Amino acid sequence: MRKIEYTFITLARQFLFISIFIYVLLHLSVVTEILVFKIDKYYQAFNFPITYLIYGLIVLLIGCLFFQHRFFYAEYTKSTLTYTNKVFHRSRSIDFDNVDNVICDTFGAYFFNKGSVSREKKDADFVLPFFRGGRIDVVQLNKMLDYMSSHGINVTKTYKIMPGYGKKTKILSFVYGFFAIAIIANCANPIYTVIVLLQAHL
User: Fold this and answer.
1) Percent of the chain with pLDDT over 70
2) How much is the pTM?
């Protein structure tokens, strides 16, 4: 059995999630210092259980976004392809022996069984999406498509560059990187606050 995994869209996107995590962690450190040192005015103003709950949910959300591509994958054998969604604990399969046509566009691979007249995406018997929390691993995908093609299944690709690997992705990478740097730059204030509070109470 071979696996087809999803990878993160760009490294800059992952860096953005990390920078948000650091920013949230620094603010959480300030809140913790206010609680521990019982700083006047701020200590009375905070509802600490609710504050920690909110920060905990934010951290959990960031973690899910960072690893979201891990929740989806596909596996195939010599005769069967299975796509799994671990978020909803669902999976679906298709038998290669029943497939005679596969059409790949910018969103996914659409499988049509023998005898299917329509070649419209909405009428496909099975769909393998290219984007699920990330982009599909192009090397692993092409290995499967080559295997299917070598066994008499007609494979058609309507794109020149694999979706998720072209100019749009490079532009997105630049945008993600810009926001990540901006967030890191804004970490200076909470870092300064953490240091000042430590120096004043230790």
Assistant:
1) 100
2) 0.86
Nearest to 18 by CA among 173, 177, 172: 177
Structure tokens at 4: 């087809």
pLDDT tens digits for 73-98? 999 999 999 999 999 999 999 999 99
Q: Is the pLDDT of residue 161 over 90?
A: no
Give me the torsion for CA of 154, 159, 161, 164, rounded to 10°: -100
Q: Which two tokens stand for residue 105?
A: 């566009």
Main-chain dihedrals φ then ψ at residue 181, nearest 5 degrees: -65, -40
